[in-house]
Amino acid sequence: MPPTVSTGADVVAPIRVPLIAWLLAVVALGVVYLLLQENGLVTTGQIAAYLHEFTHDGRHALGVPCH
Fold it and tell me: If you average pLDDT over every residue of the chain, what do you get?
């Protein structure tokens, strides 16, 4: 059996991402943005406090100021 030689064409193949995946990514980023910016803008009262504390450490990890 002769040795096979890679031409490099089989190494890089384009990946086709479905449109629904792009749409879901945009919606997910929008939700993350709203969660990160939530400081009583969308919700108020106890719900805002719970949401703030739930996402508190993640906000700081991403560099979003909240204090």
Answer: 78
- Alpha-carbon separation of residue 22 from 17, 25, 28, 35, 64 (angstroms): 7, 5, 10, 20, 25
pTM check: above 0.70: no
The CA–CA distances, whole Å, from 40 to 20, 36, 65 equal 31, 11, 14
User: How does 11-34 read in b/e, with b if 16+ C-beta sit within 10 Å?
Assistant: eeeeeeeeeeeeeeeeeeeeeeee
> DSSP string spanning 36-53?
HH-SSSS--THHHHHHHH
